Amino acid sequence: MPIRAVGFDIDGTIYEASRLYAKLLVKGFGKIRFLLAFNAVRHELRDLLSSEEYRALGIRGVEAFHRYQAGLVARRLGRGADHIYEKIEDFFYTATVEPFASIPTYPGVADLLDELRAGGLKLGALSDFPCERKIGLLGLAGKFDVAMTSEETGLVKPDRASFDLLAERLGVRNDELLYIGNSERYDVLGALGAGMRAALITKDAKAAAATKAEFSFFDYADLGRYLAERAAG
Q1: What total number of domains does the chain contain?
Q2: 26 shares a domain with 111
Q3: Which tens digits make up the pLDDT trace of 40-92?
Q4: What CATH number is associated with residue 209?
């Protein structure tokens, strides 16, 4: 089956995540309890993917997801949900995004996106966090046909819901889409679970050897060559 579209995770996939963490150290100073509670809730939301009760809530849309998420964090902190909602929006969806203006992408990302688009491939960005603003700040505005977050579906990766929605918005079948990410559990297995193809970006030799993805790389030039070979048959 030919590849007609390529999907990309954002965080840790098109830029080095450690560069962001370094910039957030100062912003997170004095907020350790809040940060730990939020991180625990993000893991809890993944655990809830197997909960019929959670899925029956039918949470859809970013705001509805954020409100539910804030309620979980507020419960851990013993604070009001509305107050925590505002704190999460200000820190995780605003303050942590602005540093992207000074974070470089991995070498070759922009050129590869242009080459793929010129070759007729549809391009999508799918992240567990809203990514349109990040894409613009990273200098990649206009290079993706679709940019979305799994939060829209209320079901974060590796659930297949957001992968299915990405393919639908790109106008391709799931098995025509190659999804690229830096997490075996969330990106690779999530994509494969949705009937897609997958590639893993990693510089860990053990992870590369163990991956279920069809291709692993760290240099975007290698990814470009791999996709060119597939296009050539």
Answers
A1: 2
A2: no
A3: 999 999 999 999 999 999 999 999 999 999 999 999 999 999 999 999 999 99
A4: 3.40.50.1000
Amino acid sitting at position 210: A
CA distance 158 to 162: 9
- Do 59 and 150 belong to one domain? no
Domain region containing 48: 19-99
Same domain, 148 and 184: yes
* CB atoms inside a 10 Å sphere around CB 123: 20
Q: Contact 196/163 with Cβ under 8 angstroms?
A: yes
Domain final residue, candidates 99, 117, 151: 99
Query: Please, are residues 7 and 149 in contact by the beta-carbon 8 Å criterion?
Result: no
Residue whose token pair is 């507020």: 74
**What tokens were used for 91?**
């820190």
What tokens appear for 223 in the block?
Answer: 């990814």
Angle at the Cα of 58 (from 53 to 59), degrees rounded to 5? 110
Of 120, 122, 213, 113, the C-alpha closest to 168 is 122
Token readout for 60 is 């859809």
The residue with tokens 């957030």 is 24
Q: What does the angle CA 202 – CA 208 – CA 213 come to, to the nearest 5 degrees?
A: 95
